[in-house]
Write a structure and sequence with these properties.
It contains 13 helices and 37 strands. It has 657 residues and is of the alpha+beta class. The strands form 9 sheets. Strands 1, 2, 3, 5, 6, 10, 12, 14 and 15 form a 9-stranded mixed β-sheet that branches. An 8-stranded mixed β-sheet has the order 27-28-26-25-31-35-34-33. The chain has a 5-stranded antiparallel β-sheet with strand order 22-21-20-23-24, covered by helices on one side. A hairpin with an 8-residue loop joins strand 27 and strand 28.
Length: 657
């Protein structure tokens, strides 16, 4: 890839590949020269003014803090000309070398489309009073652009110099936001508590007249707010301890207490404003209508039609996140998206909506968030909470079917598992409030079928088929489609080895990768030698390692938060064919185990000298309360202990099968 890029660069320099007329000045999208200005004040604050009392520092060290934000203040001015000036001051104390290593850089986010910044102070003050200013040449402006996502989001990094335990760093900057350049009403979210220790937080908001007065709301009990005629003043009463984090916790924005400021609005107005921006993207073009009807074909089932249309838009229209400027909110015309064969979530959604309507469906766009589940964290009507768009179809058959057109691996009619339960707001359709997207009871669905041939030399020949459905199928598909055949073989072997060990080297085949709606079947054949002694064999014992691996993976170590368990459905049918001279005498016990967390059932069937073991484990999606996590994990442990399949044998009578 790098070689190709360099080759194109040199050809362009030589003028070989250019189709642009000589002398044409290409005005590529860029940043304004004064995006971030360095305007440091000469005055520095004294160490004694900034540092907390010695006894408080001792407490911080005892708590194991590496660094502490001593003060974070915001001074916002909402001007008549629709400018918002937010002056932010952050003071940070460093207690340990590890804290310096982790937090020695500070900084802030900036949207280059409608914001610019001025840095007024950036320095480090030592306990002896010496001061080290930040060298402006070391500042870094890092955009968030990646291979196929382009945004106006910039992170300004400020690296502090000469830090040592006891140092205090000060950063003061002003962000000027031009609300005239926003396509949606302005809003701002501040966090008076975070995942790091914060001694003091304060915010002052000023407006010039009643027309500029913002709506506001906070859910932090330690934040005292008072509103006057032209100002709002908020300040924390006590130090805020860090919010604990762990692997399976809720989304961070669902946990962080907030102070939210927004232009007064209603949810109906937010929905309608997005509708007015999105609906003009529909081109009402005959080419799109003809394509929709060709894709629909003779299908009459709504879910089937949705599946066919979404398969085209998700796979044949490449995803590129063109989120700069107005493109961050306004979708492009559907004809342009179809012609280009690429688009972002809004572009792909509106193309699907037009095609679905042409195919006779009641389709509409829906705003959602890839990182929010809690409706309680949407206290004021605003579009600021949403970062994604998908499409839904009203169906008298099945209610509502929603699809994420940026997901090319999950079958039509199924949302990606990470969006199930996410907050959402319908665009148009007389929407009056946000809601949660539907969730399926089982995210991880798999069926295994195994044929085990027991041979008279003590070996076992296994043919195993694992059939992955919906979201698990999407994960396997996503892992394998981009790989070469050799890479696929290695991935399949490592996946098999992680469960079955290294006693055999299986051969693999895979079906169902090319169709997002299909089950992905992984078939493996392997021979295990010296599994049993034929002369001593009276009882054969086996385990269900795939079930054991699954229940082990879904255990949680949560100590602070309820656990959002996404649901598993595991079904297996394992067949054992005995060699000549042996017949089944007895089988293991039948299991019917039901609890509040799910059910496990197992039974056997005899067929001559063959025994079949059936196992079915169903654990639906649920929210496990913190006080019930130990009980939930214990159920999983019991399931893991019930993974044994066994049967006894005797010598077969002469002439018997």
């Amino acid at each position: 890839m790098k070689t190709i890029t360099l080759l194109v660069f040199f050809l362009l320099q030589a003028g070989v590949c250019s189709n642009v007329a000589a002398g044409t000045d290409l005005k590529l999208s860029g940043y304004t020269p004064n995006l971030v200005r360095w305007l440091p004040a000469t005055q520095h604050r004294d160490y004694l003014q900034l540092a907390p009392p010695a006894e408080r520092i001792a407490v911080m060290k005892q708590l194991g803090y590496g660094s502490v934000v001593l003060d974070e203040t915001h001074d916002l001015h909402l001007d008549r000309n629709k400018l918002v000036r937010d002056t932010v001051n952050v003071t940070q104390l460093y207690l340990t070398a590890k804290g310096i290593e982790s937090d020695g850089n500070n900084g802030f986010w900036l949207d280059a489309n409608h914001q610019r910044a001025e840095i007024e102070a950036a320095y480090v003050v030592q306990p002896d009073g010496t001061v080290a200013d930040v060298d402006p040449n070391t500042l870094q402006l890092n955009n968030q652009n990646s291979y196929n996502i382009f945004t106006d989001t910039i992170y300004v990094t400020v690296p502090f110099a000469q830090l040592r335990p006891g140092s205090i760093a000060v950063l003061r900057y002003r962000v000027i936001s031009d609300r005239n350049k926003l396509q949606m009403p302005w809003a701002r979210i501040l966090y008076p508590q975070n995942f790091y220790p914060l001694e003091h937080f304060a915010a002052e908001v000023h407006w010039n007249d009643e027309a500029q007065r913002p709506a506001w709301q906070t859910d932090y009990a330690k934040l005292d707010c008072r509103e006057g005629r032209q100002e709002l003043t908020c300040s924390t009463r006590d130090a805020s301890v860090p919010i604990p984090s762990e692997n399976q916790m809720p989304p961070p924005v669902d946990l962080l207490p907030t102070l939210i400021l927004a232009e007064p609005n209603s949810w109906a107005a937010v929905s309608e404003s997005i509708y007015k921006l999105a609906e003009p993207a529909l081109s009402h073009d005959n080419k799109i209508a003809d394509l929709a009807m060709r894709l629909r074909g003779g299908a009459s089932d709504i879910r089937e039609i949705v599946s066919r249309l979404s398969a085209f838009v998700s796979r044949d229209i490449r995803y590129i996140g063109l989120e700069r400027g107005k493109g961050g909110v306004i979708p492009r015309p559907t004809t342009a998206t179809l012609e280009r064969r690429y688009g972002d979530c809004k572009d792909k959604t509106m193309l699907f909506v037009e095609m679905a309507r042409d195919a006779g469906l009641d389709a509409y766009p829906v705003l959602t968030s890839t990182g929010r589940m809690s409706l309680a964290k949407l206290p004021l009507p605003s579009g600021i909470y949403f970062n994604h768009m998908l499409a839904c179809v009203k169906s008298g058959q099945t209610g509502e079917i929603c699809v994420d057109l940026t997901d090319s691996d999950t079958g039509g009619g199924h949302l990606p598992f990470n969006l199930q339960g996410a907050v959402a707001l319908v665009v148009g359709h007389d929407a009056t409030a946000p809601h949660n997207l539907d969730s399926e009871p089982f995210t991880w669905v798999v069926r295994t079928e195994a044929d085990n041939q027991l041979n008279d030399d003590g070996s076992v020949a296994e043919t195993l088929e694992r059939q992955y459905d919906t979201h698990w199928a999407a994960g396997v598909r996503r892992s394998l489609l981009a790989k070469s055949q050799a890479e696929r073989e290695q991935w399949l072997y490592e996946d098999y080895r992680s469960v079955m060990g290294e006693k055999a080297k299986p051969a693999f085949s895979v079906q169902g990768l090319d169709m997002a709606d299909s089950t992905v079947a992984v078939v493996s054949t392997a021979e295990y030698r010296n599994v049993f002694d034929p002369l001593l064999l009276k009882t054969y014992r086996d385990i269900e390692p795939w079930m054991s691996s699954l229940v082990k993976d879904v255990k949680t170590q949560n100590k602070y938060y309820p656990y959002q368990f996404r649901g598993i459905h595991y079904h297996s049918e394992i067949r054992y064919q005995l060699y000549a001279g042996k017949k089944v005498n007895n089988v293991g016990p039948k299991i019917d185990y039901v609890s509040r967390w799910g059910s496990l059932h197992r039974h056997y069937r005899l067929d001559g000298n063959r025994v079949v073991a059936y196992t079915d484990l169903q654990m639906p999606r649920t929210l496990v309360p913190l006080e019930k996590i130990a009980e939930f994990n214990r159920f999983l442990e019991l399931i893991g202990q019930e993974n044994h399949v066994s049967f006894s044998m005797t010598a077969a009578e002469v002439g018997s099968n």
